Amino acid sequence: MTTPQVETVITQADKSRLIAAALLLLLGGLVAFYLLAAQGALAQWAALLVLLGGAVAVFFTSEQGKALTAYGRESVREFQKVVWPTRKEAGQMTGYVFAFVVVMALFLWFTDKTLEWVLYDLILGWKR
């Protein structure tokens, strides 16, 4: 059974909101930097953060912002369904991985030395 694919249609209003968010951020940063320089860095940062908050609010009212929020909620729900291993199980699996790595390292070393011996000593006759 397959789930139906849902296609999101981006309207012109959504595109306009996203463009407005980008312009608010860009213009807000420029205004905060140049026009509020006389009031000090605190006023510059406050204006920039307020305009950044406005741009984020505009983004989250768009269709893409709503989809991002829904994706975040679904991710949290799925994360809560995960069954995490106990400390003992995690330690055992770590031990298995280390043991496998050691065995593979020894196997590869043995294979390398065997091929080296076959090629250099038996076939080519180069004694070291």
From TrEMBL:
Provide the protein's localization: Membrane
Span-the-membrane segments of this chain are: 18-36, 42-60, 93-111
Give any Pfam family that matches: SecE
A GO CC term attached to the entry? plasma membrane
What molecular function does GO assign, one term?
A: protein transmembrane transporter activity
Name a single GO biological process.
protein transport by the Sec complex
For this protein, the record's InterPro entries field holds: SecE_bac, SecE_sf, Translocase_SecE/Sec61-g
Keywords assigned: Cell membrane, Membrane, Protein transport, Translocation, Transmembrane, Transmembrane helix, Transport
Report the protein's function.
Answer: Essential subunit of the Sec protein translocation channel SecYEG. Clamps together the 2 halves of SecY. May contact the channel plug during translocation.
Q: Which family does it belong to?
A: Belongs to the SecE/SEC61-gamma family.
Against PANTHER family, the record matches this protein to: PROTEIN TRANSLOCASE SUBUNIT SECE
Quaternary context: Component of the Sec protein translocase complex. Heterotrimer consisting of SecY, SecE and SecG subunits. The heterotrimers can form oligomers, although 1 heterotrimer is thought to be able to translocate proteins. Interacts with the ribosome. Interacts with SecDF, and other proteins may be involved. Interacts with SecA.
Q: What is this protein called?
A: Protein translocase subunit SecE
Organism expressing this protein natively: Sphaerotilus natans subsp. natans DSM 6575
The record's gene field reads secE
